[in-house]
Target: rRNA maturation RNase YbeY
Amino acid sequence: MNVVLVSSESRYPLSRRKIKKTVLDYLEKTGLDEAEISIAVVGSRKIRQINKKWRNLDEVTTVLTFGLEEPRDEKGILRIGDIIISYPQAREIAIEDELTMDQAIDKLLVHGMDNLLGSR
Model:
């Protein structure tokens, strides 16, 4: 059974159910089972801080991914890693590409999943 953990700063309205569905559908298409992934939706300041700390880039970005070096736990569950999405950047993508917020977040989720798992 795949597990999707979603966290968000409370001021951002988002559909956790939709995020989980997008990630679970992606995992199903790749044939992964018994996997876990963490999704965080944050603001511009937070994603900039993380980007500066881990990539030495002092700028806002749309999505960051962090894979785990030792992904299997003692139960054999594949812990894929973390995807961090900037809600304000997703909002800009939604406006530019004429998408709903759910569609813009989905676009960034798929991009993050591709980064973590490679395009399978």
Observations:
- The chain is about 45% helix and 25% strand.
- Strands lie at 3-8, 35-42, 63-67, 78-86.
- The mean pLDDT is 89.
- The CA atoms of residues 94 and 101 lie 6 Å apart.
